[in-house]
Amino acid sequence: MDIVLASQSPRRRMLLEQMGVEGFHIVSPGVDEKVEGNPPPGQMVEALSRRKAAAVISRLGEGALVIAADTVVALNGAVLGKPGDSEAAFAMLSLLSGRKHHVYTGVTVGRGERTVTWYEVTGVTFRPLDEAEIQGYIATGEPMDKAGAYGIQGLGALMVSSIEGDYYNVMGLPVCSLGRVLAEEFGISLLRCGERDV
Predict the structure, then answer these.
(1) The pTM is what?
(2) Are 163 and 170 in contact (CB under 8 A)?
(3) Angle at CA 21, nearest 5°, toward 184 and 59?
(4) Residue 192: CB atoms within 10 Å
(5) Beta strands 25-26 and 65-75: pairing type?
């Protein structure tokens, strides 16, 4: 079976490999990521993951199983996307300093007409940061392509004092729930011997 990751994210690619999914292809969905209105973060990431999956399924046909995801960071319900520049990154990290925020990842798995969509949420608390630390982190370049202006798998881990929920969700793919959906909804078990038809 062809499995396709509808994402250019190197972190999602790494996590799929870590799950034991072999020989998957990567196809950029190339969709507009703007969402009308102001939906709650969970609804927003679900809608975007569905849009990405639908775009790739329409191109590849019904044979491929497509996995699409979208991740946002939210503080008190307000979504923080990827920073456009270093000033935006500084503003985001200053907001997150010493506070708890939530990371939402919406996932859609689809093959042909059958799709399953859900979202996972993880609570992340930052320790208090001073201005020099924030500026130093921004100078590494790490924040610039990441929702909320940090990467927990990199130097951003030095800012995180606690986490509640799926760590991998913060990286952009909720590994546990994705594995469960693949097994229960699409018959692909990554743990049971003889059932790893991937």
Answers:
(1) 0.91
(2) yes
(3) 85
(4) 9
(5) unpaired
Q: What are the DSSP calls for the chain, one per residue?
A: --EEE----HHHHHHHHHTT--S-EE---------SS---HHHHHHHHHHHHHHHHHHHH-SSSEEEEEEEEEEETTEEE---SSHHHHHHHHHHHTTSEEEEEEEEEEEETTEEEEEEEEEEEEEPP--HHHHHHHHHTTGGGGSGGG--TTTGGGGGEEEEES-HHHHHT--HHHHHHHHHHHH---SSSTT----
In angstroms, how far apart are the furthest CA atoms of the chain? Answer: 53
Q: List pLDDT tens digits, range 11-29.
A: 999 999 999 998 899 999 8
pLDDT tops 80 at residue 197 = no
Cα 67 to Cα 182: distance, rounded to the nearest angstrom: 10
Q: Which residues are catalytic?
A: 70
- For every residue of 51-71, DSSP letters joined together read HHHHHHHHHH-SSSEEEEEEE
Q: Which residues pair with 119 in a beta bridge?
A: 106
Report CA Rg, the chain: 17
Written as six digits, the tokens of 168 are: 């991998």
Amino acid at 15: L
Q: Give the span between the Cα atoms of 179 and 171, in whole angstroms.
A: 16
Q: For the chain, how many residues are written?
A: 198
Contact 33, 54 (CB under 8 A): no
Region at 49 (left for phi over 0; alpha for psi -120 to 50; beta for the rest): alpha
